[in-house]
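Note to self: keep these together.
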Amino acid sequence: MTAQWNEPIMPLDAAVSRRSLLAVSAAGLLAACTKGATAKLVIGDQRGGIQALLQASGQLKEVPFAIEWAQFPNAAPLIEAMGAGAIDTGVGGDAPFIFSLQSDAGVKAIAAFRLTGDAVTVMVPGRSPIRSFADLLGKKVATPRGSIGHYLLLAGLKRLGQRFDAIDIRFLNPSDGRAALSSGSVDAWAIWDPYAAIAELSDGMRIVPVERSWTPGLGFVFASDRALRDKRPQLEAFTRRFATARRWGETHREAYAQMLTGQTGLPIAATRRFLHRTVNVPVPIDAALIAEEQQIADLFHAAALLARPVQVAPHFAPLCPPPTARSAVMAKRQLKLGLVTMGVGGPGQTNRWLDPEIPVDASVNIDWYIDIVRQAEAAKFDLVFIVDSQFITADSPPHYLNRLEPLTLLSALAVATTHIGLVGTLTTSYNAPFNLARRLASLDLISKGRAGWNVVTSGDAGTAGNYGLDEHYDYATRYGRAFEYLEVVRGLWRSYEDDALVRDRATGVFLDKDKLHALHHKGEHFSVVGPLNIQRSPQGEPVIFQAGDSDQGRTLGATVADAIFTHARTIEQGQTFYADLKGRAAALGRDPDSVLILPGFSITVGDTDEEAQAIDRALRRVDQSFEQALAEFGRPFGWHDFRRYDLDAPFPVEALEHARSSFYTQAKAITDRAIELGLTLRETVEVQRDLYASPFVGSAATVADEIERWFEARALDGINVHAGRPSQFRRFTQEVVPLLQARGVFRTDYEHATLRGHLGLPIPANRRSERRAVEESLAEGGLVA
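Structure:
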């Protein structure tokens, strides 16, 4: 549901997002199905917004038919005029559309888009005690009658199980509502952008968080029945040009903001703010969308805003058939998104726990984990990734000092979510293969096929002492164990053939004993009999991830991993790693496209590039002092204490010996860099601190541009987003993700229920089942006795 406007301000329907209505997409969301025709098209506009956008973007040049413009104050009279035959087409929100259905105005919705972000919300004075929607109960709240703000209040009350009169709703137009809130005659104001942005910037008002899902955020391109019959080619051409104009507005965000300000008189700061936090994503007019609209109509009727029930389905007439579940746009390569949670602060984030938005016990607070993972799932992320290690010192990052064990945590998240993948770090050095195989398979069943395992060999040498060993395994032993470990675990996961558990009550047969197989593994490092006492999941078995960057680590990843976690500072570094891993996989006979490269990054979003850079610098400055960085610097060197050295003397290269059984690849890279550049210890620490800087810093459009550039340049297949500051993660999910969706780079909804499905990976074959099928086929053909 998009906004209605009853003031001389640019309609929200003309607020754009990058590629927000795909111009001529293979998905066919707004693509033309026919060509030709020269008859005049009469377009209804609200306060000149669409005409100005088309003009500024060059989409009124060389139009092959005449256009006549008709201006209206808001969408309701526009739709009425369309029904009367005075105009042919126009753009508007779904509320006036639904109200028009009471009289069957002869208007159809021919294309749809969904407004995302926090453009519709509840505003309160900065010092108001109201902190949540529930706090509005019994309060006076202003909003225009029948508006998106009104719908937000009704939907929220319904979700809370409250009567519609549990809030004292005062029906006021936007200017009167703003004045009433400022004077204190109402407690809150349900409104939309740009009004919300103006109230924030000019009046010091504050946004009350509400669930984005309460307002569907749907808007439409409309056409009269007569125009659909007589002017279909012109309608298709108009939607193409309108889509291209919206795309121009996003790629020329500042020019568009200036144009809107000139057109509407809005303050430029307010225009910039609402353009940066809202986006219109094209969606198909399908059964699901029509069902959403029916729910809106039913709610309006239940609240006595509609005099009689209305059926919305007959009033949709998409220009082209809706796209299939796997359209041409979606069938192409898609970006993957993972969430990396670091609670109260990981490496380089010693002081992050001081952020008042982060609970001081976040790293062991299941409610915090559930909240942030649900945010990621709402944004259609592929997975959440839980990092882990089992050795700490007093200088370890706060998150490392006190955090939940991955599989215990992920099992809790499995029942609190429905789609997002659940990936945990588990070491092959300090776990028994049978036990780990069983725990991971259990998570995979609990989550209905969403489990993933990040295979590590443990870099913290001190871990050995926690497991009764005098010293950590050397590199060769660690990776030799890892290769054999994977062989054992995968063999155990295939103990049962796919149809081994008969469970036939009629015959009393629970198990086909011929289809249960012991492993009987005897190798250099492990001896495991089996079988494993648990079946395979809907995705077959957990997805394998790997994060080692040494030569042995890369070989392990290319041999067994479905996805690789890594890091790259530049697009060139990303491309080099990408090509190396894919090449290794291909040389091993694997499909390189089945090995996904997913580097991790922090991301900083601001209203402008300059603001984002300032935010990023400030956060990195306060997150860790030099003294804290120096203490943490020793981790890859086996927690060697570098505080004993002269900071301004040449880097002590002899310290590399302490890394032999630790993170040697990382420590050697640090040492080599210091030698090559002639750095002091102080300079080396500062260079290492700079490695935490991200290439993805800027406005939402800039960040989306850069992510798309890396993706298209084959520097990555996806990004693991480090969720540091809660406010920044919200900006990424609410501002950047919708832009990536609008471009067709990232999904707009889940198409699968398993992690393998999200990642486009095949279900691993159970070789025992395959062998049996071949044998049975040969027997049927008389080729075996």
